[in-house]
Fold each of these.
Amino acid sequence: MRIFRINHVTSYSYESMVHRSRNLCLQLPRLLPYQEIHKECITINPIPESTFELSDGLGNRLCDFTVVNEHKEFSVAMDLLVTVHARQWPRGCSTRSQALDLMKQLRNPRHLESLPYLYPSHHVQWDSGIELLTADLLHDGLPPWECGRVVMERIFREWKFQANVTGIHTTVHDLLSNRVGVCQDFSHLMLAAIRQLGFPARYVSGYIETLPKPGRPKLIGADVSHAWVQVYDPLGGWMDFDPTNHLIPSEQHITVAFGRDFADISPLRGLVSGGGKQTMKVSVDVSAQAGI
């Protein structure tokens, strides 16, 4: 068990006055068997006219708010205190054919809930090049959890982490060609590989503590939001894989939202009247706590 304090601040500045804005904030952590939320505080500036919580179609928690006061600066600050327990992994399927046969039992509500994560999505389109990652796995008949482990390892070994070379328009084809990216890209690449093998896989957004280099102090605000993947096994359920760090997530990963890809779970989105050109800044700090 580990306890984390998370401070996540998103701020916008505009070249001209904003008259009104309607916003959806997707930064409230999910309520999960392995995750307890002890504190969650959202500070919005300017103060919104109305604020309420709702759920999207994937079960994520959204904060819906409207700002009617004119402004040129806007910020959303999230203060969280979360306990994360080690995940428990039940024994999964032993073969690919067993997993595919079980997935056909649509009377099982868990299998039905996994189906949206089986097909192409906005950022995860079919690409013949993905067979370079998966052809031998298809031939060997490995089950979902084993495919997840192998694909995670291959992405970590064969792709290079490099910031500021990809963006929201980067495709799976681009990643296969350039072999560089960040956690969002590696997650999309892994989703494409697992789905083309016939298994549901979903994008996970959240946080992971970034530790400083030996002898260096931890910089406040130097952490970042993180992304990884869950693969669905009809017997074992959803299993987490972090291709960026070659890790099976456990106590160090704080889960916020699930989606088909990043397009489903953008942390903050909205409609603005006025404002003109905008500049966004994001600061994230994840710190381990000794106790509550």
Amino acid sequence: MTDYAHLKAAIKHCGLLHGDVAKVICKSEAQFSNLINGKAEFAPHEKTRIAELLGFSESWLFQPLVIHAGTGFSRREIAVLGPAIETRSRK
């Protein structure tokens, strides 16, 4: 499962709601939810528009965080630690 933790954090940092960003790329909140949770793929023009809106680099915003089942980490820990925990599990 791919999770765009950087994108979620940037949206929150900017004081926006997911619905606000969805409108900018002409998607419903449900469609945007599927995109941001890795259940669908962003189109290149959508990534560019979102990066412009949020003021962050596209490459950073859309760097996927791969969540491996059974790591023992909470979603919050995974969002903070990111790639450092992708290949190892908590003891």
